[in-house]
Amino acid sequence: MLVPYEALLSLPQETLQAMIKEYLLSQLEDGSFSDVDEQQMAYATERCKHALKKGELVVEYSEDDESIAIRQREHISARVND
Predict the structure, then answer these.
(1) 3-state SS, residue 65
(2) Integer Cα distance of 5 and 9 in angstroms
(3) Burial class of residue 58 in the structure, from the number of CB atoms within 10 Å of its CB (0-12 exposed, 13-18 middle, 19+ buried)
(4) For residue 78, how far is the Cα from the chain centroid?
(5) Is 38 helix (H, G, I), strand (E, B) or coil?
(6) Which stretch of DSSP H or E encloses residue 81?
(7) What 8-state DSSP symbol labels residue 12?
(8) How far is it, in rounded angstroms, from Cα 24 to Cα 29?
(9) Helices (DSSP H) in 28-72: which residue ranges?
(10) What is the average pLDDT across 51-75?
(11) How many helices (H) and strands (E) does the chain have?
(12) Can you give the pLDDT at residue 78?
């Protein structure tokens, strides 16, 4: 189930920040943030928020395993169409 963007706005900021950080961490191939400084992280976070607002990224809640995660919309669409 996709969570509407408007619903994200009602989440506590800490919750949204944690989801974005988890998403960004998942995008790094080596899983380490040793080469990313605070400024780069802040920039990446803002880009992620903008992509959520534009609908390029979506928040998906899985009822099966009761998890929530940010996903690329195109990956969700491809999975549904398979």
Answers:
(1) coil
(2) 7
(3) buried
(4) 17
(5) helix
(6) helix 73-81
(7) -
(8) 11
(9) 38-54
(10) 92
(11) 4, 3
(12) 66
Which residues share a beta bridge with 59?
3, 70
CA distance 51 to 82: 24
Name the percent of the chain lying above pLDDT 90: 62
Residue type, 13: Q
Residue 2's H or E segment, with its range, is strand 2-3
The answer to which of 8-12, 24-28, 33-37, 53-57 has the lowest mean pLDDT is 33-37
pLDDT of residue 8: 93
Tell me, what DSSP letter sits at residue 56? S
Which one has a higher pLDDT value, 28 or 39? 39
Show the tokens assigned to 76.
Answer: 């969700």
